[in-house]
TrEMBL record:
Record protein name field: Cation:H+ antiporter
Entry coiled-coil feature ranges: none
UniProt xrefs under Pfam families: Na_Ca_ex
Membrane topology: Multi-pass membrane protein
Organism superkingdom: Bacteria
Transmembrane segments: 6-26, 46-68, 74-92, 112-131, 137-156, 196-215, 227-249, 256-274, 294-312, 319-338
Amino acid sequence: MIGDLPVFWLFAVFAVAALAVVLSSIRATRLADIIADRTQIGEAMAGGLILGGATSLAGVVVSVNAALDGDASFAFSNAVGGIAAQTLFLAIADTIYKKVNLEHAAAEPTNLFQGVMLIVLLSMPLCAMAGPEIAYFGIHPISVVLFLTYLYGVGVSSSVSEQPMWEPVQTSDTREDEPEDDAEPEKSARGPIMSFIGLVAIMAVGGWVISQVGGSFIERFGLSSSLVGSLITAVVTSLPELVTTLVAVRRGALQLAVGGIIGGNTFDTLFVVFSDLAYRDGSLYHAIGTTDLYWLGTGILMTSILLAGLIARQRRGPGGIGVESVAMLAIYFAAAFFEVFG
């Protein structure tokens, strides 16, 4: 068993699994862009559905494994901590995109709608926690509602992408979603899709290994489940989002970068649903602690600020980045400080 390994090998296995997930995600970014062009579904939709869901898979495995082991706090904090971390990655990407504020350049109605959906989905666990402790067959009704709302949101996102009812003002700094010169849209998307599926399998295995090592950290070093979930496994399993975001920005696929984060975060809310299904001791929402709730609030706050930035579309702020990016950086690191030292 992984948990029985000596400390050195435990960290070595953890590093190898993390590296496998990250390297797979780098290749997945390129394939997602090709699939978007060849299927003509657009960068924002590809980022939100294809790339966002695939790079979130390792995190799903971590949360479900934690829930199966009966650690509700680990499962939940890994989910909401990952959402906060991934939102932070957009602020980091904004600092390296020197031309203009990233949220201004990546104007896209689909990303705005998915941002609203993310706030709606994150609010549902909050309502469940404040309500009565109920569960049918070990599942809280809000998990079913959250899953159905997610499916509805995916359908509406598709219609918003295909037939937008409004368009952002085009400026000299707006980067339009156009196929790459080497995209070869006349070619079949089957090959890239099959390669993409193989990379997804690698990410899933990496996620399982990371979850096992994370559980060992909790037991062996006496760390809290919330700290391990929100700041260790959540950040490590979110590294693909950081890599794919930075790679997408360097490639000029800005809608893909923003859509990958927001869409990935929207998919990450399903971690809670899957964890509630796997947790067999009643309602997951009533088995977590106040620290986990704190990270949920942090995720909602950071998403709201990001959405405001996408709407306001400030060209430049302090140090050449948007005010919303500065705010997101400050909020995340303040939350991490209080998690460790509070």
